[in-house]
TrEMBL record, chains A, B:
Protein name listed in UniProt: Beta-ureidopropionase
Gene: UPB1
Family annotation (Pfam families): CN_hydrolase
Residue ranges constituting the CN hydrolase domain according to the UniProt record: 72-343
Species of origin: Ataeniobius toweri
Keywords carried by this UniProt record: Hydrolase
CDD domains: ML_beta-AS
SUPFAM superfamilies with a match to the protein in the record: Carbon-nitrogen hydrolase
Transmembrane segments: none
PROSITE patterns named in the record: CN_HYDROLASE (PS50263)
Amino acid sequence: MSTCEFESLEKSLESHLPEAELAEVKRILFGRETQRLELPTCAVKAAAEREFELKGYKFDAAQEQLRPPKAVRVGLVQHHIVLPTDAPILDQINAMHSRVGEVVEVAAMCGVNIICFQETWTMPFAFCTREKEPWTEFAESAEEGNTTRFCQELAKKYNMVVISPILEREELHSTLWNTAVVISNSGNVLGKSRKNHIPKVGDFNESTYYMEGDTGHTVFQTQFGKIAVNICYGRHHPLNWLMYSMNGAEVIFNPSATIGALSEPMWPIEARNAAIANHCFTCAINRVGTEHFKSEFTSGDGKKAHHDFGHFYGSSYVAGPDGSRTPGLSRTRDGLLVVEMDLNLNRQVSDKWSFKMTGRHAEYAEELKKAARHDFKPKIIKE
Amino acid sequence: MSTCEFESLEKSLESHLPEAELAEVKRILFGRETQRLELPTCAVKAAAEREFELKGYKFDAAQEQLRPPKAVRVGLVQHHIVLPTDAPILDQINAMHSRVGEVVEVAAMCGVNIICFQETWTMPFAFCTREKEPWTEFAESAEEGNTTRFCQELAKKYNMVVISPILEREELHSTLWNTAVVISNSGNVLGKSRKNHIPKVGDFNESTYYMEGDTGHTVFQTQFGKIAVNICYGRHHPLNWLMYSMNGAEVIFNPSATIGALSEPMWPIEARNAAIANHCFTCAINRVGTEHFKSEFTSGDGKKAHHDFGHFYGSSYVAGPDGSRTPGLSRTRDGLLVVEMDLNLNRQVSDKWSFKMTGRHAEYAEELKKAARHDFKPKIIKE
């Protein structure tokens, strides 16, 4: 079975394990079971017709006396590119708008309050080619680009917060960025969050296109909760998650683009560890499919030149602060994951597990400052 | 099936999944396959006679031109308490010495260079009772206690580095500590590493017995590699792992004592995330079994008083820097996990994935310092 064909871990377990063992395996792998979320028939029907996977789950929290439940529905969208990568750029972008637009319409039927798309969702993930043209032409203004305008329409129409990760062209500094634009459900651009850590993985070096972000660890206070966006490679950096959480994020989105051969065994670990360590929800989103490019390129691995980067394995999921997580979306299909979460769970788990209170952060700040210096002397005991 | 009976995740998958799917499931769950390590027949026979599980795995690294392979074999020991918790204290300690001694003998047959026992391995994990007596009588001097002397004998006899996590009584400051004593293969006490984060989980508060450690993030340079010890609850704190790694640790041990109802879904996540994020090996060790106490105690959860804390689920494992991990030991049986690792893998993965180089640590030190202050103003954007 090739890695592009294998549909999902969850499906495999459910098809083969006896019921009693399946329950134990799921408890160990996924924690406290997330309940299925009942979704409207019209949404289920529309998703089937539009040929994408639709799944719904729910994280409960205990009832409190002083705070009402704080239920929010988030939507995670994963998708293939729509047109071939050598189609006219505007056609490619418009086709992607149209595809994602029909997914968002279904999300609205499901009562989604906050939706997040995958990293640089309007374009192929072409950074592996190392070509500047035509890929940099996909870059748009975060404030006034066509894609932002398109998302503002969606936001207003559906009363939905939209997180739109794009390749940003900032005319002000003649600079490209990897940026998530956050649009309020009013339709206003609330702000943007730039990718804090730029991958240098083997020869795959995105700093050919953009540098480390300068927006720090901004948190966006929306009507539905406090959210932040940790883009792709930033999920490997625990301090990045920590600082979003320290700034108050209740839900941290991680729009990504990553392939099986590289990162698949890390995928279920990192965003979930961040949810546990920081007493918050994390949403991991990855694109799907294999994208073919006209020019061949090498990958600094001694192998022959080729025309694709590999298989993007989807598997988008949501992790909760109590160590539980939803099953993942498919490894091969477009999909929408609708997850209802009671944000009260964050403080409940924090009050129980106390990782912040026991964190000794002031001491770590001192230690880290010393450790980061060129003349740092590690504390090593020898015989 | 009760949670105390379920033998292991790995066994369940291997019994039921068709071969091709099993390979994909294992790849996603465990990463690049760790090879089985051939163990000597005498060791396999002795383990069977002594009724403990013996498993061996191997992490390879690529051949380099300038550095020879740096193969080291580590041993992880998980075990039940031997005598009932109301037996005379010295008998309990001696029985544990004897049991662990026979496991270490098998480890020596397997060529283990560095062995690590579970947290407070000479005693029941009695902190749930909140009684001081008789449990504090288990505390010993790290430098001159009987248990340290016993471990020094093992170390010399088998030319093995021994990590012995005990309840430490420090006469100097009339203080108890939760401490790992590190004994060189020469038999000398190399030093000690005290638990940096003390659990406050619900009503389970170990600070009744000891406070946060004062030994920082010491790394021990042994003949076989640079090692560190992150005790139990410290595995929930990504900064704790980071600082051991920044001080040079190639292998970080996490001797633990934790029960299924509390932490089992987090267990496969945290130590493994630390191995990935820090480009090092991590070794997670948990005790096994249910320990009964004479006095009943409550657990601050509204439930009736009871005589045990719950089921310690073993499942000890080793995680590598490339996202791969070994299968876990049993959830129910005593066991010895022998793992050979080529420490060259750490730098190879670091050179490929670059998490340290892209870490922006100096900036995080500044940010964290501000965030830890009482007058910190989070960076929140509102409409």
